[in-house]
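Mods, move this if it's the wrong board.
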Amino acid sequence: MMNELTRILKECINDNLIHMVLSGAREKDHISKIKIRPIRHREQLLFQTSEQRGKQEFHANLTGEQTLEKAADWIQKDFKQLQIETTQLTVTILVSKKGKLTIKKKIRQQSLEAADISHNRRKRYIIEEGQPVPFLIDMGVMTAGGKIVKAKYNKFRQINRFLEFIEDVIPQIEIGKELTILDFGCGKSYLTFAMYYYLKVLQGFDIRIIGLDLKEDVINNCKRLAAGYGYDKLEFLVGDIASYTGVTRVDMVVTLHACDTATDYALEKAVKWGAKIILSVPCCQHELNAQIHNEILEPILCYGLIKERMAALITDALRGAFLEKEGYQVQILEFIDMEHTPKNILIRAVKTVNKRKEAKLEPCMELLGVEPLLGKLLKKQDEE
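Not the wrong board. Structure tokens:
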């Protein structure tokens, strides 16, 4: 398998390379991600590495031989996944806990243009501009020729940003079996279709995605589109998050802009089903705004806007803490730039242990005078 790894790297590390991404760091306090792209410097083809450590990035320029040696070493010792995109190929290399390498190679049906290897090149996305994608065309994000509609460029960036979050957690998912993904409150399903396209079409994973929403007309349209694209394992249903019982086990739960306590019901369901991955972008956090009370903080909580924003942040922080208590490793991340929407927090949770962790949340909630719904739902789940 090591010979195969070397052969694949030699095949990809040249001027046809678009980018390589190493993710799924084995050491949490070490480098979290490495991106590699080709550049042209003084007529010499080099490969620039960008190592992400916390919020900082460190760059280095390497020759092809150095890049091959480094990439092989990184994937064997430091990371669980290597994603390679070239003009001709897409390659995914996964490493199991026991060090077993799984290499998935897919030849593109249509070659992409060679990467711009100047220093000041434009940003590369998981879904590239210039390659027509049916669902993006139908949703008005892309023209039939593959060009992004200017008025929809923020939506295009949002879709790719979301896929980057998924790309980061792929190493945490057990590959080799059908993966079930539930998308609660899927709406028009930009991101639902994007997930399916990325994981099934581009990566070739065996997945089943279920989109759930209360709006029957929206769901019917999504069904029609999915059938037209031949997405046979993408299903859309009319239903409510709190009462949905269609599955007993899921691998990933996605909930985007589920309003107020609908997010809490979705998170409780995810924990109940033992979801390995949770991706949640909460919306309209009203519950704690009506509860929060503290005499010491009253001089600043008397301002409605301040209280609303504090309550929203506290709501999502407590949601993260409750998930930590259930054995998840939680990150609260910026989804898209604040200039586009204030509802830009994403809660990303990865199940790491089966037993519950100790978390002294009661004094914190007592201080603030709050009792979040998610805490009550999880407590009831434990009692049952």
